[in-house]
Structures are given as structure tokens and as C-alpha cells.
């Protein structure tokens, strides 16, 4: 039986990188289809860099303030990704908007996790938005990145009920638990070739689609 080559993944962070940690921990499993080989941050003070380095993963900062334009910063990022043969990029709390050219170059090979059930509540303050709107379900979404912010085709979602006593912090904490489960699962689907972008839709292998149908019928 031929062992599938693991997909080489870079994680981009701007802060503590709690979703980065979840991905790194998941990738320790021998049968996980992705290998985390690089962590990059646009902020030298990002706490997640130290964790990645301690885990033995090359971790570097590319300070966006040192670059005069969005395009020159993106070019510096691209150079780092190319240097180590990155095949798939995961955004984990990366608080920069890319140039359209950079996003298009990584079409179908860059994913993000967003703390809402997209297409609801794009942008920031998602938990406040959910409470203000009075929704009964809130959650998180993993999606492919496209030039339009928080609008890419959806790979996976997880939902939690909004409770009567919730405030933004309590809701965020409960959703973060789901983020840490959902992102590694979604990365495994993409890295393992079981979910891929075709046009503007995500196409799943038959076994994944069957499992999703079974879950929805419960």
C-alpha cells in the first residue's frame, strides 16, 4: 500500500494562535494528511511564534509595517512560502487583507476560519453582531479564501446554541472550542484531497458526502 505524501502547510497568524495550536497538535498524528512546516506572522510580538518555535516548527515574523504597500508585503510572504515549498496556507487569526493577486495565486490552496456561520456576520465583532441580531444559533466556518472578504466557498461549519445569558465573551469561548475541533478536521479534508475547490463550489469525495448526509439526518 502506497503512503500518501503529506501536504506541506504554512499557518499565518497575528496573535496567540490558538487555532494554530489546534492544527499543530492534530498534525502530530501519524495518519494526518498535512505537515505543518512553517508559521508566519505579520506581527513580531505575536505570541504564537514562540509556541511554534518550541514545537520545532520554523516560525518567522514579516512585519507589515516595514513594507510600503500591501503588494510588497504580500510579495515578501510569497517568497517565504516558496522557499520551503508550501502547498497549502491556513489563516489562523491573520489580521491582514491580502491583495487580489496574492489571493488569486493561492486559489483553492488557502483556507481560513471565521467565527460565525457565514454568510452571516462577516468582518469583525461577530459575536456582538450575533447577539444584536437575536439569532438562536451561532458558530464558526472554514472556507476557501477569495478576494472578497469572508465570502469564499464553505468547507465546514459548526454551530452552538445562543443561550439567554450569553454575552460576547461567553459566546466566543464556547465557539472557540468548536473552532479547535473544526479547523483540524477541515484541513484534513483539503490536505487529503477529499475536499477541493471547483469553480465557486467545494466538491467532496463520495465518502465524505455520505458521512455528511448521515450526520444531517440525525
TrEMBL record:
Protein name as annotated: Phosphoribosylglycinamide formyltransferase
Catalytic residues identified in the record: 114 (proton donor)
Record's keyword annotation contains Magnesium: no
Question: Which family, according to UniProt?
Answer: Belongs to the GART family.
Instruction: Show the stretches that span the lipid bilayer.
Output: none
Function, as annotated: Catalyzes the transfer of a formyl group from 10-formyltetrahydrofolate to 5-phospho-ribosyl-glycinamide (GAR), producing 5-phospho-ribosyl-N-formylglycinamide (FGAR) and tetrahydrofolate.
Q: Which gene encodes it?
A: purN
EC no.? 2.1.2.2
**Carries keyword Signal?**
no
> Binding positions for (6R)-10-formyltetrahydrofolate?
70, 112
Q: Where is the Formyl transferase N-terminal domain?
A: 8-187
Instruction: Check the record and name the InterPro entries matching this protein.
Output: Formyl_transf_N, Formyl_transf_N_sf, GART
Q: Which residues are noted in the entry as N(1)-(5-phospho-beta-D-ribosyl)glycinamide-binding?
A: 17-19
Print the keywords alphabetically.
Purine biosynthesis, Transferase
Under CDD domains, the record lists: FMT_core_GART
Give the reactions, separated by semicolons, that this protein catalyses. Answer: N(1)-(5-phospho-beta-D-ribosyl)glycinamide + (6R)-10-formyltetrahydrofolate = N(2)-formyl-N(1)-(5-phospho-beta-D-ribosyl)glycinamide + (6S)-5,6,7,8-tetrahydrofolate + H(+)
